[in-house]
Amino acid sequence: MGTTARTSLTHWGAFSATVVNGRLEKAEPLAGSGADPDMIGALPALVHSDQRIDRPHVRRSFLEHGHHTGGAGRGDEEMVPVDWDKALDIVAAELIRVHVDHGPKSVFGGSYGWSSAGRFHHARTQVRRFLAAAGGFTDQVSNYSWGAAHAILPHVLGSADSVSRAATAWETIASDGDVVVAFGGLNAKNWRVTSGGAGHHHIPEAIAKAAAKGVKFVIVSPLADDIPLGLDATLIRPRPNSDTAIMLALAHEAIVTGRADRAFLDRYTSGFEILADYLTGKTDGTPKTLDWASAISGVEVTELRTLWETIRQGRVMLSAAWALQRADHGEQPFWALVALASVLGQIGLPGGGFCFGYGSMNAVGASARGGYVPAMKGIANSRGMGIPVASFADAFLNPGKEIFFNGRRVRYPDVRLVYWAGGNPFHHAQDLRKVEAAWRRPETIIVHEPWWTPTAKRADIVLPATTTLERNDIGGTSRDPHVFAMPRLIDPVGEARDDFAIFRALAERLGCRQTFDEGLDEQKWLRRLWKQTEARGAEEGINVPDFETFWQEGFWNVPLPEMPEVLLSDFRADPEGAALATPSGRIELHSDTIAGFGYDDCPAHPSWIAPNEWLGNAESDELHLVTNQPAKQLHSQLYQAHEHNGPVAVRIAPVDADARGVRDGDRVRLWNARGACLATAKIDESLRAGVLVMPTGAWFEPGRDGTERNGNPNVLTSDRRTSQLAQGCAALSALVRIERAGRSGEEER
Ligand SMILES: Nc1nc2c(c(=O)[nH]1)N[C@H]1C(S)=C(S)[C@@H](COP(=O)(O)OP(=O)(O)OC[C@H]3O[C@@H](n4cnc5c(=O)[nH]c(N)nc54)[C@H](O)[C@@H]3O)O[C@H]1N2
Ligand SMILES: Nc1nc2c(c(=O)[nH]1)N[C@H]1C(S)=C(S)[C@@H](COP(=O)(O)OP(=O)(O)OC[C@H]3O[C@@H](n4cnc5c(=O)[nH]c(N)nc54)[C@H](O)[C@@H]3O)O[C@H]1N2
Ligand SMILES: [Mo]
């Protein structure tokens, strides 16, 4: 006992921890790291929250009748505490039963969500390893963050690297750039977070440097908050989901004014002529002019002309936030951005070309050597299958239904058992009332969670997991030059166990322990992972400290690369030798492969297709709901560590508020045909009219009348996919109505 101080890591940054008599008393951002002090400071409240699950629990009727009881009572019935052996026996028996009676595909275990920054105890990694070792399962393929990009970019650029790991370094924008046009903006709140956690939050500094050098910024977003504080930027506020039209019109302008870089297009792209015929209207009779884009986007044509004048010369970086592709036809804005950058001809040059995600996550555009953060290897899921990540509710409701997915057909499995460890579907999934219905269908639902989240409350069997602070791990991201030791700082809270330990005990019962743990315990695994880091160092001639030294010092600073990264510079330097992995070896502005799929919702070149739900087809009292990431949380994480004196805030423009008699601070109700939730009105003078902005992050809590009480906007979002190509999450295409909350809403609280 006594006081100890050590460093560790979360997805929201590195911290120094003070532990007094076995309790985390204080957490502060690691000095100089730039991590957010509120998010880091909330760690003691989070870890020692009264929402922690102290013991394993089983739903009352499931305990009494087993899976025959049916799913209707989930979330309503009492959860009964049981001892660990009993809980593990039930889980093991259920896994065996479903495997024997229905086969591996009836076990659903994608477990989407972020859980911990530690790379060994990462719950989602562990559960997928375990279920594969146990004989196979239905996995979730791709992700919510950039599902549409993940599918379209390999057809265009040969890989999804430009969204998953590669980006032109900010320092080249400062040294060589003239203009940054950021579609979806550069929202500073998003730089608090990195997948895997980072030792440095560099973007505010990088932007300040670029601005000081005279780089001009244009922010294209309905929300003025998407301009970093203190940055002098031009704001263009289009209707949500209309960016593709603006990008295509700029490309058209380049063609008709003779600014298109024919030499670049000839040497590095294929299919430009087909795209050009579309842009000039030769194929459909509609030239994609600035006037055309103005009518679609609601942006004055003079503003679009000024934007064109701004980008027609100088070194121009075109960036798109990931949010743009989380919408109906979300493949199109990313493809259109690559097309516009191709027409301008600066791809592969420092400070120019295109980039995805500068405004989406910390460490995008940082300079770092990849490959030093060790990753756990997966176990082949050869008897299982995968479905698109966002399709799980649809799959639970429609076993046997066939969907198209990037040129393949996928037949939904008959899901009988759900295993979720490290995610919160009752936070993240769209159309939560549909998810509620889908959640009643499986026979058995098992959840590992440290806290009583809405998902944990709706399980049959809940196993309490430790948090990062209660176990040893290694964390970091390849986009940041640090690797962190994450030492066990406190004992497990209550009877919580590590996800790894839980799966080990289950693997023992199922007879697959050796396949799952390879005979190694936590310490041996961490040392094995560190050997991977050492091997990477040996390849590159970089001196890596030994494990003991690394652990003692708390983190290791990976030496910076000699040259800052420039996306696709290799390809630019040598288009034959470093050909892209597309059929043509070039950037595809028209794709024969996609043409071959014949999808009406994803044509063979970047195209404007009106969204299913947007201001272009709204009734006069409907508004477009943008649901962005929460400022001081990581998704649903940290919600329980903050005080809430009312439901989450929704931003509304003054004219829309006035029309409805809504005042700042009013309790409001948002609704559409899918559902309803409460929120607290926040009048935002600079928000585009017709748009509401409400962050995700609230814990789902439906009231007796079905209205969600905490402000979880996913009761309003649609479960439609981006297209048959990506089957991605399209949460950002949703129309809603809003009014002051009636008395019934208030009485219930
Ligand atoms: N409307 C709308 N919806 C969206 C989005 C949007 O933009 N708009 N964005 C989407 C995106 S990009 C994402 S990434 C998702 C986020 O998806 P979510 O699933 O909501 O993400 P988290 O809240 O990070 O979920 C992680 C869960 O793991 C738990 N956990 C933490 N540590 C551990 C551990 O060690 N073990 C176990 N077993 N559990 C642990 C946490 O308590 C939490 O419940 O939301 C998506 N949903
Ligand atoms: N603080 C914090 N940071 C996070 C996260 C978090 O939970 N908390 N989550 C992380 C994760 S998992 C992810 S995937 C990324 C997500 O990164 P993004 O998806 O890029 O982030 P969002 O905040 O959802 O959206 C960014 C901005 O896009 C704008 N926008 C939305 N729709 C449109 C549109 O149609 N056109 C234009 N021009 N603009 C639009 C919105 O105004 C919004 O503020 O964020 C990461 N960063
Ligand atoms: Mo994400």
Automatic annotation (TrEMBL):
Residues 8-48 form the Molybdopterin oxidoreductase N-terminal domain. One of its GO terms (cellular component) is outer membrane-bounded periplasmic space. Its cofactor is Mo-bis(molybdopterin guanine dinucleotide). Pfam families: Molybdopterin, Molybdopterin_N, Molydop_binding. InterPro entries: Asp_de-COase-like_dom_sf, Molybdopterin_N, MoPterin_dinucl-bd_dom, Mopterin_OxRdtase, Mopterin_OxRdtase_prok_CS, Prok_Mopterin_Oxidored. One of its GO terms (molecular function) is electron transfer activity. Residues 52-509 form the Molybdopterin oxidoreductase domain. Keywords: Metal-binding, Molybdenum, Oxidoreductase, Periplasm. Belongs to the prokaryotic molybdopterin-containing oxidoreductase family. This is Biotin/methionine sulfoxide reductase.
